[in-house]
Amino acid sequence: MTAPDRSAQEAAAPRRTGCGLSTRLETGLRLEGARGDLADPAQRAVSIGYIATRWGFTHHASFTRAFHGRYHMTPTDYRHISLDAEDGP
Fold this sequence. Notes:
single chain, mainly alpha
């Protein structure tokens, strides 16, 4: 339960821990969601920038850096590899 003197905005804000664990977990979940969309054949025509924005990344460059840091490839490369595997030989 929220203390009565706290604003709704403060109550909705993500909790920050000293090591940034909450932020890292949130970013990881958003990257997983974006990765799923990039591999989805039904979303082949959706731009990578739009997918990044939909998952809460405000800058394409920061999304690409975060994605590359986690999956060791760019979102574009991941999409090509994933969709080519779906299409078969």
